[in-house]
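User: Teach me something about this protein's shape.
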Amino acid sequence: MAASINSKSPVVLVTGCSLGGIGYALVLWYASSSCYFAWRIINLNIKGPVLDISIEDAKAAMDTNVLGVLRLAQAVFPHMASRKQGTFMTVASVSSYTLDFRIQVVPWSGLYCASKAAASSLTEALQMEARALSPDIHVIQIVAGGVK
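Assistant: First, the predicted structure itself:
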C-alpha cells in the first residue's frame, strides 16, 4: 500500500544515485530531512572509442540520459503546474559543455558527452517553458565535474 503524502511536505525524487555520486549524496542528505523522497540507482558507464560502442549501448545511453529527463519532466510538471510551484533539477556534466557554451568532448567518453549535452539542451528548454507555467516553477541544472 502506498504511503500517504502530505501535500505541503516537499517531495524529492532522485533518479540516479550510484554509490559515490552526487545523487547518492543527495539521498543521504534528504534521508535526514522531513521531506518525502524516493530514489533509483542508475549506473550507466559506457566508455571507449565511439566507433567501438554498440548501437544498443548508444540507445541505452540516450534513453537514460535524455529520454529519462523527458519522461520525468512529463510526469512531474503537471503536478508542479497545478500547485504553481516546484523545482525540477538535473545534473549535467562539464563533459557536455563549458560555461561559455562551447562543447567540450572527452576522448573515450564521446557517447556520454553527447548524451549529457542533449540532456542539457532539453533542461534549458524546460527552463524557458516553465516560466509560462508559473514564476515559482524553477528548473535548475547543476554542472558537475568529477566527484570524489
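Now, about its shape. Strands lie at 11-14, 36-39, 86-93, 137-144. The CA atoms of residues 93 and 144 lie 5 Å apart. If you'd like, I can walk through any region in more detail.
User: That's plenty for now, thanks!
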